[in-house]
Amino acid sequence: MVDPKHIHEPPIDPLADTNPSMTVRKVPMDVVSDGSGWRRTVGLLSLIGAAILTLATTVLLLVPAPTPIALQPTALPPTVEGLVVEPTLLPTATLVLATPVPVIVPEGQPTISPDMVQALLQAAPQNLMVSDSLVVQRDNYNPFTFIRQDRPRSETIQYVATDGDTIYTIAERFKLTPETIGWSNNRRYTLVLRPGDVVNIPPVDGVYLQVVGTKTIAEWAAEYKVTDPYVVIDSEYNDLSGAQPTDVPPSGSYIFIPGGQGEDITWNPGVTVDSSGDTARQGFVTGFAPGDPGSCGNVQNPGGGAAWINPLPNGSYVRGFSNLHTGVDRAAAVGTGVRAANSGVVIFAGWNSWGYGNLIVLAHGPFLTLYGHLSSIAVGCGQNVPAGSIIGGVGSTGNSSGPHLHFEIRYGQSPQDPCATLPDVCF
């Protein structure tokens, strides 16, 4: 065996060939493919994967965590006091309520009695009246459907008058003007409305009438101060689609003229005078607008004096007496004192539903004086007041467009021209 220490490599000649002094044997390709190549590939991929994982981890650490979203509870369906309404479920859903909690309806809202609850849960559809303006209707899809009856109407309905009804109270109830009710019904209703009378109630202000004769649609519209006949023809409240202004509606049929205006109406609240017995000693028994809030009922009327005075000497004349205006209007500032035009007894003191607003009526034997639209009332029922005493203040209550005094003189139930008795009220 040769000792390695005795092996010497020949010195390198820099001018000689640069081949190494030891022979390096070339590795065949079949040796490279024995597995060493794929190991290098796997190692490279591992390094790449590690780099990607490190980068992703860094990004997750640097990005702030998302803010949690608070889920709001689903609102419960509307209920009424004493009644728990469970949500409508799909056929495949199951819901168990451990302890149902009733929802308290705010004060003033309609409630349902236990009998109504049982009726609502029956299979047959029903309509139940809860209040004057609310109906509970049950169907097979939604067992608690609330329908407001005060939604806009598209047709004229009929209302049966009851005790205490007047044209003004009915008009206020249905959000119409008193004139609309007057023009759309028997004119007697503007004078006397009796329990049981059937009153036409149009959907909006205008004139509802039964056409008679051979007038065309255009002529009917013009009669009630509507210049465009297509306002009538195209109205949703009439069945006149395709009609022409020159067409004549069938006699006896009904049409509605939206915004139409009829004649001026003189409103008469009604006066009762009982002159039976010894009137010279006992006087008259008089009442005004029975049933109204300010009515004093029948009051013994001892008569009045002969001296007449201007009830508002500081006012200014703005409107006189006519067949369509039963008194004299004198304007003045709100609160200006109104005086008794003659000595008499108070037979009405309070709110009047015929358009006078706050009203005072004094009886002077067979005569009456009326003081309308007042802002204040300083006398009471049955009180005897002397001529010239302050009984109230000028206002603009009731059917009024500005502060003024509406002053009337009546003999019994018949309005008289105040200018004939008190000329200075008309200047």
Q: Explain this structure to me?
A:
With 427 residues, the chain is α+β, with helices and mostly antiparallel strands. Among the domains are: 157-258, LysM domain (Membrane-bound Lytic Murein Transglycosylase D, Chain A, Roll); 271-426, Glucose Permease (Domain IIA) (Distorted Sandwich), CATH 2.70.70.10. The chain has helices spanning 29-32, 36-62, 114-120, 167-173, 178-183, 217-223, 230-233, 279-282, 418-421, and strands at 127-131, 134-137, 145-148, 157-160, 198-201, 206-210, 254-258, 271-274, 284-288, 299-301, 316-319, 328-331, 337-339, 344-352, 357-364, 367-374, 376-377, 384-385, 390-393, 404-411, 414-416. It is built from nine helices and 21 strands.
List the helices and strands and how they pair.
Blueprint: H1 29-32, H2 36-62, H3 114-120, E1 127-131, E2 134-137, E3 145-148, E4 157-160, H4 167-173, H5 178-183, E5 198-201, E6 206-210, H6 217-223, H7 230-233, E7 254-258, E8 271-274, H8 279-282, E9 284-288, E10 299-301, E11 316-319, E12 328-331, E13 337-339, E14 344-352, E15 357-364, E16 367-374, E17 376-377, E18 384-385, E19 390-393, E20 404-411, E21 414-416, H9 418-421
Summarize the structure.
The chain is of the alpha+beta class and 427 residues long. The protein is 16% helix and 23% strand.
Determine the mean pLDDT.
77
CATH class of the domain at 271-426: Mainly Beta
CATH architecture field of the domain at 271-426: Distorted Sandwich
User: Structural class, from helix and strand content?
Assistant: alpha+beta
The Rg value, from CA coordinates, equals: 48 Å
Helical segment count: 9
CATH superfamily of the domain at 271-426: Glucose Permease (Domain IIA)
Kindly state the percentage of residues in helix: 10-25%
The rough form would be described as elongated
Distance from first to last alpha carbon: 160 Å
